[in-house]
Specification:
Blueprint lengths: L1 H20 L19 H4 L1 H9 L9 E7 L3 E7 L8 E6 L4 E6 L3 H8 L2 E8 L3
Antiparallel strand pairs: 1-2, 1-5, 2-3, 3-4
Amino acid sequence: MKTFLKFTVLSAVLLMLVGGLASCNEKNTNNYKKVCNVKNPLADLPWLREFIEIGGPFPGMLVNIYQCTYNDGAVGFLINPAFNSFYPIIELYNCEGELLDYAGWGSWEKLFEKWNVKNRELIWTNIK
């Protein structure tokens, strides 16, 4: 019972924190700098557009997509497709849509260090 209560409280706090930080939504494309040889990666990269259109790996799953740099300047995308699951993961993709690496909850920082991930910016979410 205590474990369930701790998980519920932690999940609620995490949801409020991410919800408060999430200022983007699927209709807000902001003014993107040209990256990956496109002006708007959400609309112009077919693999990313398809990911958004189908709603991630499973219908109804909450998803955050971050644009970032890795390995000293390469542009990439961090996709958090299991935000509302018991084991949230984060995946690092390059501009071509190749999965470079992924990490489970508790090891995200190791992934960020391994790939030298910086400049994380939320560019899309379906969390309301």
